[in-house]
Amino acid sequence: MSELTLAKRDFYRRRKYYSTMSYLEDIETASEFEAMRGKLQSLLEKDEALYLKFMDLFVELMNYRYVSNKNWMGIPIVKLPEDIIVIQEFYFDYKPTAVIEVGVARGGSVSLAISLQKLNEIKPNVLGLDIKIYEHTQFALKEFLDKGYLKLVQTDSTSLLAEKEVKDFTNGHERVFVILDGNHSHAHVTKELELLDKCVPTGSVVLVADGIIEHLPEREDRPWGRGNSPLTATIQFLEESGNWTRLDKFSRRSLFSEFRDGWITKIK
User: Fold this and answer.
1) For 222-235, what is each residue's pLDDT tens digit?
2) Which of 18, 132, 160, 217 has its CA 20 to 30 A from that of 66?
3) Whole-angstrom Cα distance, residue 260 to residue 48?
4) Is there a contact between 196 and 149 (Cβ–Cβ < 8 Å)?
């Protein structure tokens, strides 16, 4: 009998579903709840077969551009809803004082970062880097720009300008959070990680987006794909660099995620 089956059987036995006890009297204690959900979370993270079922569903959802059909505070955000929840959990734990968004797109992720800093009583402080920053994005983010919460820089995220901006922006900060969500090719993500290794302090956290590409059908209109993705770059970078390690708490926190195994932290 599998670990999951045993855990579920134990759960239902303790809940006494077939008794006449009031459900209000059968609610788990706080410690029981935490223990059970922790155990099930651990099993979920190892369930590769279930993850592949999600991938089959995600491929179908791509026909509807599901990942980009939500807004955050009125601004389109290109993220899965479960990833947004996990990012919120991270902000609550880590409370980053400097946030770098590589890949600004429509602006929703920047809006999310500012919102989460506010919720955690941190002065909003975000740097957005993108090779092309659209006029409609600047308009959507105008309030944040005017208030000094945000700086947008149009440049390649591996350029000398990007390196200078990142160094200047993170100077004096101990809790830096970076989301890499621009060019997803192996070579480009590797260069981004190497740049960050030089620029951000120990303790910084980087979320490498779209490792999910490793499990998606090939597309001819993109310079990346299976074997040439953010995930392959991250794996190689961790193997070759002694300065970084995977942040296990968040790497497989969600099944419906574009960020699987993409959370890393600088340890020296």
Assistant:
1) 889 999 999 999 99
2) 132
3) 12
4) no
Give me the half-sphere count of Cα atoms (radius 13 Å) on the Cβ side of residue 167. 11
Residue position matching structure tokens 């620029």:
199
In a domain, 51, yes or no: no
- Which range has the worst mean pLDDT, 64-68, 78-82, 218-222, 245-249? 218-222
CA pair distance 98, 25, nearest whole angstrom: 46
In the structure encoding, which two tokens stand for residue 185, read together? 């090719």
Helices 81-94 and 108-119, packing angle to 10 deg: 40
Q: Which residue has the tokens 């074997």?
A: 227
Separation between Cα atoms, residue 157 and residue 105, nearest integer Å: 14
DSSP string over 84-151: HHHHHHHHHHH--SEEEEE--TTSHHHHHHHHHHHHTT----EEEEES---HHHHHHTHHHHHTTSEE
Domain of 147 in residue numbering reads as 57-266
Three-class DSSP category at 21: coil
What is the sign of the dihedral through the CA atoms of 44, 227, 129 and 248? positive
Q: How many domains does the chain have?
A: 1
